[in-house]
Write a structure and sequence with these properties.
With 129 residues, the protein is mainly α. The protein has one domain (6-127): Ankyrin repeat-containing domain (Serine Threonine Protein Phosphatase 5, Tetratricopeptide repeat), CATH 1.25.40.20. The chain has eight helices and no strands. It is globular and about 45 Å long. It starts with 5 loop residues before the first helix and ends with a helix.
Length: 129
C-alpha cells in the first residue's frame, strides 16, 4: 500500500473533523466530489459513525444520501446506530433506522447497548414503538 503524503493526511483529518463538528455542507460537497462516503480513520470509525456519535443528524442524513453504509462497523464492532443509541440521540437513531440500519448488527448491537445502559426510550425506538 502506498504511503500517504502529509497533505492527504491533513485533508483526511479535516474530513473527520467535519463529521465530528457537523460541517455538513463542506463534507457532503467533498463526498459528492469523490471522497469515499465510507472513509475510515485508523480506528475504523467511518464519517457516519463520527457524525452519529456527535449527534449531527443533518450530516448523518447527507452521508446516507451519498451512499454511506448504515451497517458498517468500526474496528471494535460498533455501528453508527449503536453510537447514536449510546449517546441517546433519537433523531439520529430514527434517521439511521429509516436508512436500513440493523438494530441487531455490530458488537455490541444497538439493542444490546440500549439494554446494557438501561435506555428504555432508545429500546422503544429500535423496536419501532
Amino acid at each position: 500500500m502506498a504511503e500517504l503524503d502529509d497533505e492527504t493526511i491533513a485533508y483526511a483529518h479535516r474530513m473527520f473533523d467535519l463529521a465530528r463538528s457537523g460541517g455538513t455542507e463542506e463534507l457532503a460537497g467533498n463526498v459528492i466530489a469523490g471522497l469515499p462516503a465510507d472513509l475510515t480513520n485508523d480506528k475504523g470509525d467511518t464519517l457516519l459513525i463520527l457524525a452519529a456519535y456527535h449527534n449531527h443528524v443533518d450530516t448523518v442524513a447527507a452521508l446516507l444520501e451519498q451512499g454511506a453504509d448504515p451497517n458498517r462497523v468500526n474496528d471494535r464492532g460498533q455501528s453508527a446506530l449503536s453510537a447514536a443509541v449510546f449517546r441517546q440521540n433519537p433523531e439520529t437513531v430514527k434517521t439511521l433506522l429509516a436508512a436500513g440500519a440493523d438494530p441487531n448488527g455490530g458488537t455490541p448491537s444497538a439493542v444490546a447497548t440500549a439494554e446494557y445502559f438501561k435506555l428504555p426510550e432508545m429500546a422503544e425506538l429500535l423496536r419501532g414503538e
